[in-house]
Write a structure and sequence with these properties.
It is a single chain. With 244 residues, the chain is of the alpha/beta class. The protein has one domain (11-240): 3-Layer(aba) Sandwich (Rossmann fold). Helix content is 34%, strand content 30%. It contains eight helices and ten strands. Strands 5-9-8-6-10 form a five-stranded mixed β-barrel, surrounded by five helices. β8 (147-155), α5 (163-172) and β9 form a beta-alpha-beta unit. α2 (67-79) packs parallel to α6 and α4 (130-140) crosses α8 (222-240). The two termini are 26 Å apart.
Length: 244
């Protein structure tokens, strides 16, 4: 069995059903929802836990920030046998009326990241797997938490001098949120023949200062932390539904 160079795991340590997230500490919080959860590897930004949910083996893996590290994790997870991957991440709203801690399910993504463009031209769409979308909505529809389906924009920096103008542009075109990893996951996941989806917890109100919004999240505001937990549960339920 071959040890992957960045995740430092082999195929015996990765299940077919995987949750990915950016932040390593979020791996621990998601793993707390599993049975028999145990750490299996940690290297750089990549932390992996293995456990079970409803009897199904589940791997949880952090990817760090941005498309390049997301794609390293994605490729090595696929090399180890991953078949379905859902991102449980955070995002900033691009529409008014999306509150903090409300959930955003990406039907597709605007590919403003450089990582996926290194694989295939921008005309190739970033689309989520329909069966996973259906299962996510099935769970969310039963929760007392607002959620939104739509197009998100994935990008490589929110500290650009013209970031406010870019956000306004895509808001006018109907994008509902922005993050830094979804488009890479959906694009390359599709190229690699796996099922992929992304559910995001809103941590920045539209036109709110980014640093202020992220700071509130780091302070573990209860509403947003509850949003993360519901997003993780939705992902687990989607991954372990029949024929997931």
């Amino acid at each position: 069995m071959s040890i992957q160079p960045h995740l430092t795991v082999d195929e015996s340590q990765v299940s077919e059903r995987v949750i990915v997230c950016g932040e390593p500490d979020r791996v621990n919080r998601i793993a707390s929802l599993l049975q028999e959860a145990k750490p299996v590897a940690e290297n750089r930004e990549f932390r992996l836990f293995q456990g079970k949910y409803r009897g199904y083996p589940i791997t949880v893996c952090s990817t760090g920030i941005g498309a390049p590290s997301m794609l390293i994790a994605l490729e090595e997870l696929v090399h180890c046998g991953a078949k379905s991957i859902i991102r449980v991440g955070s995002a900033g709203a691009l529409q008014k009326g999306i509150g903090l801690g409300e959930l955003i399910v990406a039907e597709g993504a605007i590919r403003d990241d450089g990582g996926s463009l290194s694989y295939v031209e921008s005309s190739y769409p970033a689309c989520a797997d329909f069966s996973l979308l259906r299962r996510l909505e099935n769970y969310l529809s039963k929760q007392e938490r607002a959620y939104h389906f739509g197009i998100v924009r994935s990008h490589d920096s929110f500290y650009r001098d013209d970031e406010a103008q870019i956000c306004q542009k895509w808001s006018k075109k109907g994008a509902i949120a922005s993050d830094m990893e979804t488009s890479a996951l959906l694009t390359v996941g599709r190229l690699r023949g796996i099922k992929a989806a992304s559910i995001l917890n809103n941590v920045v109100l539209y036109q709110q200062d980014v640093k202020e919004g992220i700071g509130m999240y780091v302070d573990a505001d209860k509403v947003m932390m509850d949003g993360e937990r519901i997003a993780a549960k939705a992902a687990l339920e989607a991954l372990t539904s029949i024929d997931a």
